[in-house]
Specification:
This protein is mainly β and 694 residues long. It has helices at 3-11, 40-43, 52-58, 63-67, 247-252, 471-474, and strands at residues 47-50, 73-75, 87-89, 101-104, 107-108, 128-134, 150-155, 161-171, 176-185, 189-200, 208-222, 225-238, 263-280, 283-306, 311-340, 343-365, 380-401, 406-424, 431-452, 456-467, 487-499, 503-519, 534-550, 555-569, 573-574, 580-581, 594-604, 607-616, 641-652, 655-662, 670-672, 679-680, 685-693. β31 (670-672) and β32 (679-680) form a beta hairpin.
């Protein structure tokens, strides 16, 4: 029995493990930041937490919708409901969130963190309690890719005793959802289950259904050990399309969807096992076993752009990208507090072996076959290959308290990975080509901080950024090793944060100096798809700031602003004809200079209400920095836009009623020109719902 079959039978469903809390109802877990003392004083970099209260107020449609309120984050919408997050941090391209590490309860979310980190799966925001966004050298603990930073989704845990919450929501475009959370917890054990069903007609006539189930339990048998387990199942079926609009189609009807038969199916199983052992009062070992098995089948109608009519012409048949992903890993780390002379040390070190496998098939469904070319999933096998990655990472970070106010935290991570791509002659036939590529990377960093009481803390750091190339970029379709090195940068950060009685703030300056930025040749990259996979110098630098103010008379203001004056190429690239093109000085795609988010709120007597604004300045979508949009809609500048939203809720006893209105003005704007044309931002969306607690 081969290794892959054994993996599946053993429960190729694995995905997140945890363990930090002594209270079992808190579901012990490896958090993205330590929970010792003041959280921010241990991060060594910019840090934002979207609280449970904030999520309840905003009622976001997705995790992506929630993250747009975070300093430094730019999100790009393509489907209107955030099923495929496109998250960019500090001017980095948000192309399928490839430059951000996304975690849930400390374990990787991407279907293939090494093989293909594109975010074709995103856990529902309804299962989240809080969201953490971490940037800076503290992300050295995690991997593989943390150039932009790391995002950790923290799921809901059962409350002590017996508790439950039933939530029902309805909205326009046929949106409706029902969610149930039920749990039992004591001082030593807990068990809970969360179930969610949501569906709708979607944006641009792209209907969807989602079923999500999470079951968990924990036990603390004694003072030395704690265990927890979480199992999850996610099933999504949607008529999501890869085809955007041409310039003419967008001007005529921004709601048009010509691909009636595009269909995306995502099914994912996860199993997370957690163990925490207290060796002594000052030492503990935490072990996370995680893994998942997912199927991502996307059948898309083939089309071509008709320059004479300015429209996309459908060709009457589909092709399918049928993929199966499996990920399994162990994250084990030790935390040790110790003294050396007059200085306290806080050491964290660990090892993370990980294995990934992807089965990739491309199927052409033609009318020459005895099948319906627009509905069948059977056809001619055009591409069949297997991609594997073996990886091991070792890290260590040691915080040194030089004085009560001054701390320094050096750290490093070592990554070794081996990539293999096996090309098959045809389905289930003997292997024709097997190619292997490997690399080893040393990733150092150091951060420091100085506190002036609660009012201010100055922090800064420098670390090496790292992101491995995808297997398909390192080994081409003919089985040739491209010798593509990992993406590398040197990242600098300097900031100040603090809190007063009525104000909490953070102001951070940053520089990302890339020596080897990878320009991926993928359709999801939009205009990037016209470029060969290349590496080049680029520079991102700017400032991000966030404030939360408690104003008089029950009012509050939450605002952030990200300014990225520099996000540009510093070297030339080569076009699809292998001709050198001068891009030096051009602005990077999807890097707006200004991003602003504000919310003015009011809360009293069980009533909470707010009005919020998201504003994004203009941005280029291609390396050439074309000012005018191309007729096919795939390249050109995107004008700046702003969107107004509102929220209101009323809570009395065990009942909470809430409502939201997003894009109140029904503003029309272009959100993206990728994957294949113009994707308009979602129009006016209303939601109303109620939560009953018992």
């Amino acid at each position: 029995m081969n290794k892959f079959v054994q993996l599946k039978r053993l429960g190729s469903i694995l995905t997140t493990l945890s363990m930090l809390s002594a209270q079992p109802q808190e579901m012990p877990q490896i958090d993205i930041v330590t929970t010792r003392g003041d959280t921010t004083s241990f991060t060594g970099g910019s840090y934002t937490r979207i609280s449970e209260e904030a999520l309840a107020q905003l009622q976001p449609l997705s995790t992506q919708d929630a993250l747009r309120t975070t300093p430094g984050v730019h999100v790009v919408e393509t489907d209107g409901y955030g099923f495929y997050p496109r998250i960019g941090i500090r001017g980095l391209n948000p192309d399928m969130s490839k430059k951000v590490l996304i975690l849930e309860d400390g374990a990787p979310v991407q279907l293939g963190p090494f093989i293909d980190p594109a975010a074709y799966y995103s856990p529902p925001v309804e299962r989240m309690k809080e969201i953490e966004v971490l940037k800076g050298s503290s992300s050295l603990r995690y991997g593989p890719s943390t150039i932009g930073g790391a995002i950790n989704y923290i799921t809901k845990r059962p409350e002590k005793g017996t508790s439950g919450h039933l939530t029902a929501v309805a909205g326009n475009r046929g949106y409706r959802s029902v969610g149930l959370d039920f749990g039992v917890a004591t001082d030593t054990t807990s068990a809970s289950v969360s179930m969610l069903r949501k569906e709708g007609e979607g944006w641009r006539d792209m209907p969807f259904t989602v079923n999500d189930i999470v079951a968990r339990g924990s036990i603390t048998p004694n003072e030395m050990h704690s265990f927890s387990v979480k199992a999850s199942y996610y099933d999504q079926s949607a008529n999501h399309t890869y085809i955007g609009l041409t310039d003419k189609e967008y001007r005529h009807n921004p709601l048009l969807n010509r691909a009636d038969h595009d269909h995306m199916k995502v099914e994912r199983f996860g199993l997370d096992i957690n163990h925490r052992a207290w060796i002594s009062d000052r030492a503990q070992v935490q072990t996370l076993i995680y893994g998942n098995n997912a199927h991502r089948d996307w059948f898309r109608e083939e089309f071509s752009f008709n320059a004479a009519t300015g429209q996309n012409e459908m060709e009457g048949w589909r092709s399918g990208r049928v993929r199966e992903f499996s990920v399994a890993g162990v994250d084990s780390r030790i935390s040790l507090d110790h003294s050396m002379g007059d200085m306290e040390h806080y050491l964290e070190a660990g090892i993370r072996p990980q294995y990934e496998r992807m089965q990739n098939n491309r199927i052409d469904v033609h009318d020459t076959l005895d099948v319906n070319p627009l509905t069948s999933t059977q056809g001619l096998l055009r591409e069949h290959d297997t991609r594997e990655v073996h990886n091991v990472a070792v890290f260590a970070m040691n915080r040194i308290d030089i004085t009560d106010n001054l701390r320094i935290t050096p750290g490093a991570r070592f990554e070794y990975y081996q990539q293999t791509r096996t090309h098959h002659q045809k389905e289930y036939a003997p292997v024709s080509i097997e190619t292997t590529s490997d690399d080893a990377v040393f990733i150092p960093g150091i951060s420091a901080g100085y506190t002036f009481g609660d009012a201010a803390e100055v922090f800064g750091g420098v670390h090496r950024g790292f992101a491995p190339p995808r297997v398909q970029d390192a080994i081409d379709g003919a089985g040739n090793e491209v010798k593509l090195k990992a993406e590398e940068s040197v990242n600098y950060e300097l900031g100040v944060r603090g809190a007063l009685d009525w104000l909490r703030y953070e102001l951070t300056g940053f520089i990302y100096d890339f020596d080897n930025q990878i320009i991926a040749a993928s359709e999801a990259g939009g205009a990037s798809a016209t470029q060969n996979t290349n590496a080049g110098k680029s520079l991102n630098q700017g400032v991000e700031t966030g404030v939360v103010m408690d104003l008089p008379a029950f009012f509050s203001l939450d605002a952030n602003w990200t300014w990225v004056p520099v996000a540009e190429f510093r070297s030339d690239l080569f076009n699809s004809d292998n001709e050198q093109v001068t891009f030096d000085g051009n602005r990077l795609p999807y890097a707006p200079k200004h991003t602003v988010n504000t919310r003015f709120g009011f809360s009293t007597g069980g009533i909470t209400a707010g009005i919020s604004l998201t504003a994004v300045s203009s941005q280029y979508t291609d390396h050439e920095n074309l000012s005018t949009g191309t007729p096919n809609g795939r390249a050109g500048k995107i004008d700046g836009y702003h969107v107004w939203n509102s929220d209101i809720s009323y809570e009395v006893g065990r009942v909470r009623v809430f409502g939201t209105a997003k894009n109140i003005e029904d503003a029309r704007y272009i959100s993206s020109r990728s994957p294949r044309g113009i994707f308009p931002g979602a129009g006016r969306t209303f939601m109303i719902g109620s939560t009953v607690s018992f």
